[in-house]
């Protein structure tokens, strides 16, 4: 079975220190968490940034500062800026994270509108998705196609038919928001992918670890981290992103998967030029 790529979503845009004191806000804290994940075996650092008070931002300058600082500590890590931002941000705001130097090799592309609960709606029209894909292709950035349900896979394939995506296609299934985080639904999502596509999966909150175990055993890649889950196990807050990566590594060992280095992850994802 192919080596396992571990992505660490180290802070997200919504979780807070009130929920877990280890959630990073400052550049120093973000670097600490990125390094803890990288040292434990994460090849990909999925990056949101915050202002020091925890407010999410897509500021180009803040992303540049964070990426430069992470690169000093994790020189070969794949740093993957989010273009999701936070609910309410404009398209142009969200794309600022890709306008840094050097141009990111990998970034997220959300492939549909999502209900996050209550009145929180994360809007991604077809035109937004196609425009993001076009701009990312022009900048030489490979998109990770973020999908929260099966319909978003279909929208991504529409973008591919327009020639806007880079092959091999790579998907990230975020389960437990708009679609249930069950083995049945994970199998359904994987079965909906085109031939040759690679995929990562994550389960939110209490769904994190059974989705991780299923994903590893099915040959997919796994995402863990504070953005998606704050707990190492029921009732036990994780002390760092590194702790969660360590748990994913242990699961992989039990299930017979070796861990991909950043260089090996680049080969699997088709990031090498």
Distance between the termini: 24 Å
The gyration radius over C-alpha positions equals: 17 Å
Count up the helices. 9
Number of domains: 1
Protein structure class: alpha/beta
Shape: globular
Order of helices and strands: EHEEEHEHEEEHEHEHEHEEEHH
Query: How much is the average pLDDT?
Result: 96
Biggest sheet overview:
8 strands, parallel
What is the chains' assembly state? Answer: single chain
Number of E strands: 14
Strand order of the largest sheet: 5-2-1-12-11-10-9-6
The name of the CATH architecture is Alpha-Beta Barrel
Helix content: 25-40%
What is CATH's topology name? TIM Barrel
CATH class: Alpha Beta
Strand content: 15-25%
Fold and architecture overview:
This protein is an alpha/beta fold and 273 residues long. It has one domain: Aldolase class I (TIM Barrel). It is 37% helix and 20% strand. The protein contains nine helices and 14 strands. It has helices at residues 27-40, 60-73, 91-95, 126-138, 150-161, 183-191, 208-218, 241-255, 262-269; strands at 6-9, 44-47, 49-50, 56-57, 78-81, 106-110, 114-117, 120-122, 142-147, 170-175, 198-203, 221-224, 231-233, 236-237. An eight-stranded parallel beta sheet has the order 5-2-1-12-11-10-9-6, with helices on both faces. The protein has a two-stranded antiparallel sheet with strand order 3-4. A two-stranded antiparallel sheet has the order 7-8. Helix 1 runs parallel beside helix 8 and helix 7 packs across helix 8 (241-255). The mean pLDDT is 96.
Topology readout:
Blueprint: E1 6-9, H1 27-40, E2 44-47, E3 49-50, E4 56-57, H2 60-73, E5 78-81, H3 91-95, E6 106-110, E7 114-117, E8 120-122, H4 126-138, E9 142-147, H5 150-161, E10 170-175, H6 183-191, E11 198-203, H7 208-218, E12 221-224, E13 231-233, E14 236-237, H8 241-255, H9 262-269
Parallel strand pairs: 1-2, 1-12, 2-5, 6-9, 9-10, 10-11, 11-12
Antiparallel strand pairs: 3-4, 7-8, 13-14
Helix pairs in contact: 1-2, 1-8, 7-8
